[in-house]
Design brief:
Strand order of the largest sheet: 1-2-11-10-7-3-4-6
Order of helices and strands: EEHEHEEHEHEEEHEHEH
CATH class: Alpha Beta
Shape: globular
CATH architecture: 3-Layer(aba) Sandwich
CATH topology: Rossmann fold
Oligomer: single chain
Number of strands: 11
Structural class: alpha/beta
Length: 246
Amino acid sequence: MASPTASPMAFPGTLRVFADAAALARGAADLFCDLAQASSGAFVVALSGGSTPKPVYQNLARDPWRGRVPWDRVHWVIGDERFVPETDPQSNLGMIRAALLDHVSVPPGHLHAVPTVGVTPEEAAAAHAAAVERLRRPDGVLFDLNLLGLGEDGHTASLLPGEPVLGVRDRLAATVPHGRDTIRITLTYPALDASRVAAFLVSGAGKNAMLGRILDGGADVPAAAVRPAGELIWLADRAAAGSRVG
C-alpha cells in the first residue's frame, strides 16, 4: 500500500490522506496494530460506531492484521451507544461484535460496553463512566487509541451540536436524550481528551466541507473541540480530503 500523504494544518494535528475508503480502512488497521505492538501492559481502545470504522474492524479480524495484535492485552471501550438492546440493528456494540469482537479473543472483563438493559439511561451513563475511570493510568490517560468518526454536522461520538452534553466536564459519560430519534450514551470531552492518540476516520465526499472547515481552524463544531493529551490524527480518504491530497 502506498504511504499516505501528511500535511500540517491550522487546527492541531496531522492529516493522513488515503486513495480511497479501502485504503483508509487498511491504514487505520495498520495504525491500530502498530500502537498495540508498541504498547506495554494493557492496550485500551475506544471504539466508535458508524459505517466508516466498520471495515477497519473487519480488517482487524482477519490476516495479516489479526496476527499482529496482542489480543490478550486489549481492552475495548464503546465510545457511544444508542440506548437499545445489543440485538437491535442500531446497536453500536452489535455491529462491533459482528465485525470484530466475535472473531478474536476477548478475555473476560476486557469489554467495557454501555449497559442498556435493566437500567435507566442515567444509570447506564454512570456505570459506563465508572468502568472507564477504572482504566485510568497514573498519568491520567484513559485510552491508548481513541477511534472517532465525524458527522456531516460536525458531531463526533454522540457529542451533538447544540446539546447540553457539550458542556459536561464533571463526568466521563453522559446521556444525550435529544437531537436524535434514540436516546444515546456517550463519552464526554474529559474522556475523549484523555487519549494518547485520538484518530478521526473520515470517508466520503459528504464529509469534505466539514472536514475542510475543521482543518482550517474555522469550525465551531463538537469534533473541532477534541484536544487529546497526546497525538491528534485525521485519517481521510481522497474524497473527504479534497484539495488537501498532496
